[in-house]
Amino acid sequence: MTRAKLLNMGLIATSLLVYFEWGGDHSTFLLLLEWELASKLFVDPVSVLHPFTVLPLFGQILLLFTLFQNQPSRKLSLIGMLFLGFLIYFVLFIGVLALNIKISLLATPYVIVSFLTLKHHRLKGK
Predict the structure, then answer these.
(1) Cα gap 8→6, rounded to integer Å
(2) What number of other Cβ atoms are within 10 A of residue 89's Cβ?
(3) What's the rounded Cα separation, in Å, for the pair 97 and 95?
(4) Of the candidates 65, 10, 11, 58, which has an alpha carbon nearest to the alpha carbon of residue 34?
(5) Tens digit of each residue's pLDDT (9 = 90 or more) over 27-78
(6) How many whole angstroms separate alpha carbon 16 and alpha carbon 30?
(7) Whose CA is closest to 72, among 34, 124, 126, 19?
(8) Rounded distance, CA 85 to CA 90, Å?
(9) pTM (2 decimals)?
(10) How many C-beta atoms lie closer than 10 Å to residue 114's C-beta?
């Protein structure tokens, strides 16, 4: 298994652990939100069409696709990471602004793996 594949797996895994809280006592992980979105996709597809739902999901699909390539595409990896990062960096920003430790800490692993991925691709590109 190549380092690029391990980093892409890390991006997918750490993204699923991102934690959300909203409106009082509502909270969940991204994994559970995606499960709910997938179930609504076939019943009412228009209700799940939003940039904060479609782009991250597309990013995860791109990263998943790279795992099946012999040599993961650098471009697909970076695009997938970027699309997924839109949501996760926004969640981290809100967690920091709200001084919510749980949200901030559970978004941090994705940030770390994304920086490692950028570093890997930058060094590999030179």
Answers:
(1) 5
(2) 15
(3) 6
(4) 58
(5) 889 898 888 888 888 888 888 887 788 899 899 999 999 999 999 999 999 9
(6) 5
(7) 124
(8) 8
(9) 0.87
(10) 22
